[in-house]
Amino acid sequence: MKKVIITDQAPAVIGPYNQAVEVNGTLYISGQIPVNPQTSKIVDGDVTAQAEQVFKNIEAVLVAAGYAFTDVVKSTVFLADMSLFQSLNEVYKKYYTSNFPARTTIAVKGLPLGALVEIETIAVK
């Protein structure tokens, strides 16, 4: 059965989709960009500051659904430029310290609202 996950602790969606959907013990989190949910604006700063906000948003959705970072099995990272890869990794390893999820990192031409990073996440119980 499909269960929609919505929390006000993560940014509201900006299109026809949900923050996350859970099906049969698997949580699919839509791509999170560095929007502060209180201001609905992209956080100021470099990719490090933006990645920190993205992970706060992911954590809010995980918690709302009853999951944790240890349940994450796959991340897809979208970067505005691959030169940001190492800085992103420094933030990434704060949230994933062992038993790392599978991951794909892709450089893209543009991200919503001019973000430098977007991350979609899959977690399994």
Any descriptors?
alpha+beta; 60s Ribosomal Protein L30, Chain: A; 6-stranded mixed sheet; two-stranded antiparallel sheet; globular
Topology:
Blueprint: E1 2-5, E2 20-23, E3 26-32, E4 35-36, E5 41-42, H1 47-65, E6 72-79, H2 85-95, E7 102-107, E8 117-124
Parallel strand pairs: 6-7
Antiparallel strand pairs: 1-2, 2-3, 3-8, 4-5, 6-8
Helix pairs in contact: 1-2
Short description:
It is built from two helices and eight strands, in the order E-E-E-E-E-H-E-H-E-E. It is an alpha+beta fold and 125 residues long.
Account of the protein in words:
The chain has 125 residues and is of the alpha+beta class. The protein has a single domain (2-124), classed as 60s Ribosomal Protein L30, Chain: A, CATH 3.30.1330.40. The chain is built from two helices and eight strands. It has a six-stranded mixed β-sheet with strand order 1-2-3-8-6-7, covered by helices on one side. The protein is globular, with a radius of gyration of 14 Å. The two termini are 15 Å apart. The model has no long low-confidence stretch (mean pLDDT 97).
How are the strands of the biggest sheet laid out side by side?
1-2-3-8-6-7
| CATH architecture designation | 2-Layer Sandwich
Which class in CATH terms? Alpha Beta
What's the overall average pLDDT, rounded?
97
Strand content: 25-35%
Q: Which word captures the global form?
A: globular
Output the number of helix runs: 2
Could you spell the SSE succession in H and E letters?
EEEEEHEHEE
Count the strands?
Answer: 8
